[in-house]
Write a structure and sequence with these properties.
Elements (H helix, E strand, L loop, with lengths): L1 E3 L6 E3 L7 E5 L2 H7 L4 E7 L9 E7 L5 E7 L5 E5 L5 E5 L12 E3 L28 H4 L14
Parallel strand pairs: 3-9
Antiparallel strand pairs: 1-2, 3-4, 4-8, 5-6, 6-7, 7-8
Length: about 150
Amino acid sequence: MDATCQCGAVTFKTPTATPLALYICHCHNCQKQTSSAFGSSAIFPRFPLPAAELLSCYMRPTTTGQTMYCYFCKQCGTRLIHTTPGRNVVSVKGGCLEGLDWKTAIHLWTKSAMVPIPEGSEAYSEESGTAKYGEAQEELDQPTELTGLTGLTG
């Protein structure tokens, strides 16, 4: 899939034509990060990041005590990719991707939702317990170094 930030300075292609999973998160962190009602994330196998000189990184703790690395465009501030150590998957922010099929999205942290959850959607009051990436999940959850940014791993 083609991805771009708001200003067009950062562009990249995902390693697969469709995401392994698609999440819409209604937690307070995603609401703050997007300045909106929810955040959306498409899960893909780990791939090299765009050029380091184009990105900045914000690190924050997760609810499980890990560190999440949040990469964004230095020029316009668009959040693009999130990574967590110990996983061979990355989360690409849904708004920067062309052509996502939103009907399959799983809704998380619905207890803090500011908008109605579509009827019939898979939804969880908090986290789903385990991320669902399909048959390759065990392999994808094994640690590896993130490539693409000098001095930053995740």
